[in-house]
Amino acid sequence: MTGTIVWFTGLPASGKSTLAERTRTRLAALGRAAIVLDGDALREVLGAAAYGQTDRDTFYRVLADLAVLIARQDTIVLVAATAHRRAHRDRARSGPCRFFEVWVRASPMDCEARDIKGLYARAHHGDIAALPGVGVPFEAPEHPDVIADGGMDDAAISAVARLVVADGQSARALQSPTPTTGDSIRPATEAGSPAVVSECIPDRGSVHEQLGTMTTPRNILVPIDLGAHAKDVLDYAVALAGKLGAQLHVRHSVSWPLLGAELPVVVTDQAMNDVVANHRKDLDLLIASYAGKAPIASTELQTGDPRTLIVDTAAQLRADLIIMGTHGRRGVSRLLIGSVAEQVARTAPCPVLLVRSGKITAG
């Protein structure tokens, strides 16, 4: 372990500092301390007020070297700085630490609209001669590890957090060949191998046929929705864990409103508490039916977006495999369940086994 550098790059006012700070908060929740090196704040400390090309080159050389120096102390460093030339970021990339590049993507028009520092207005008036995106070109990353749509992209934050906590794994083994947004990161057991181990479990078939050549899982996360086929999924997971000598971690998430936060639905605290209590009762009854018959190491009811909770929990548990249900790819079933399974399969830090509804066994 030699430390980690995550460089958030993008046009001025694209949301780099916001995204870096929110990522720091997410990592802290995962038990990983990180520090943020903000380009603007560092300029004030160093008194680096000049913006000529030579001045910029000198400043970004110092920033890259400082990031490497701190990261080498087994520290996670989140750099929020435009660094408009790829050479600026590559200086940090070439060091001995793990390096991830995050492109905070936003159009110049959007950046100018939310520019509270007035940089774009000053550039248009000639007060700043070389603002990246206006006076000088911005060299976007050619192969970013994550692409974020602004500073409030929760999917990108989750993707960065998963990359950082995956100690010992390379960025290339964790990223999609052509990422487009934060939720397009597709971790894999080996570079180039699919994150989805299987999308349809046959009635009969060996464990090895279904898992292919991946390392034998010992720590399996099983998200369930307590629907009609939840027991099918859990039955399969229990049978598979028994054959592999693995432990199961069962999770169920409650979110409201069920069809998306945009719906005009007002839910009282009492109503939400009643919903959670009912779900907890159903979960406890289901788990109790496996007492003494299943290697269930932990069970937890969570509240929030199931897509984010599943991938974050997998990272926290360092899960080797996720087993979850999917009810097909059509109509309302795809909207409510399939879309969750598909996004988890794209963003999870470990392989995902998608179990379709119906009679399934791990024989």
Provide an overview of this structure.
With 363 residues, this protein is an alpha/beta fold. The chain folds into two domains: 4-184, 3-Layer(aba) Sandwich (Rossmann fold), CATH 3.40.50.300; 196-356, 3-Layer(aba) Sandwich (Rossmann fold), CATH 3.40.50. Helix content is 40%, strand content 17%. It has 13 helices and eleven strands. Strand 10 (321-326), helix 13 (331-347) and strand 11 (352-356) form a beta-alpha-beta unit. Helix 1 crosses helix 7 (154-165), helix 3 runs parallel beside helix 4 (86-93) and helix 7 (154-165) packs parallel to helix 12 (306-317). The chain is elongated and about 70 Å long.
The CATH level-2 architecture of the largest domain is identified as 3-Layer(aba) Sandwich
What is the 3D form?
A: elongated
| Unreliable spans | 168-214, 257-266, 328-338, 359-363
- In CATH, the topology of the largest domain is named Rossmann fold
Main sheet makeup:
6 strands, parallel
Spatial arrangement of strands, main beta sheet: 6-11-10-7-8-9
CATH classification, class level of the largest domain: Alpha Beta
Helical residues, percent: 40-55%
Radius of gyration: 23 Å
The percentage of residues in β strands lies in 15-25%
CATH superfamily of the largest domain: P-loop containing nucleotide triphosphate hydrolases
The end-to-end distance, rounded to whole angstroms, is 40 Å
Average pLDDT score: 76
β-strand number: 11
Query: What is the SS-derived class?
Result: alpha/beta
H and E string? EHEHHEHEHHEHHEHEHEHEHEHE
Number of domains: 2
Q: Number of helix segments?
A: 13
